[in-house]
Amino acid sequence: MDAPVEIVVTSRNVDVSDRFRSHITQKLAHLERYDSNLFRCDVELDHETNPRQSKASQRVAILGHGKGGIVRAEAHGPDFHAALDAAVAKLDAQLRRNHDRGREHHDRHQQTVVAPTQTMPSAQA
After folding, report:
1. Is 65 exposed, middle or buried (CB count within 10 Å of its CB: 0-12, 13-18, 19+)?
2. Cβ atoms of 74 and 100 closer than 8 Å
3. Considering only CA atoms, which of 33, 14, 36, 6 is closest in space to residue 83?
4. What is the topology classification, in CATH, of domain 6-98?
């Protein structure tokens, strides 16, 4: 059985509650279905203090370390929940594309067997 994904949450200019940390863990747990070799996720939360950037003042960056390489997704939003959802969706899309590429490459080498066509006897009148 594979070891669970290690999730490291760091923050800048903001305090992260335990409830939000568990929310992050639940969101990232779904990513294992595409890449079982993912062993660490670094989640960085950042708050922009500039009032002119209020619509995108919360930033979430996720860096996933796996056996095949590193995947990264970043998103901005008015709150951390929206930014986290957008970043997880981007990371999910990347992992899904990488997973599908491997499947297409693997399927290309399999031989396909086509059944021979049978000829229909013609009706003679």
Report:
1. middle
2. no
3. 14
4. Double Stranded RNA Binding Domain (3.30.160)
**Rounded to the nearest 5°, which phi and psi values hold at 68?**
-90, -10
* Reported confidence tier of residue 97, pLDDT bands at 50, 70, 90: confident
Provide φ and ψ at 8, rounded to 5°: -115, 120
Distance CA 29, CA 41 (A): 10
- DSSP-assigned letter for residue 43: E
Taking the model in full, what pTM does it have? 0.72
Question: Which phi and psi angles does 34 have, rounded to 5°?
Answer: -95, -35
Per-residue pLDDT band at 88 (split at 50, 70, 90): very high
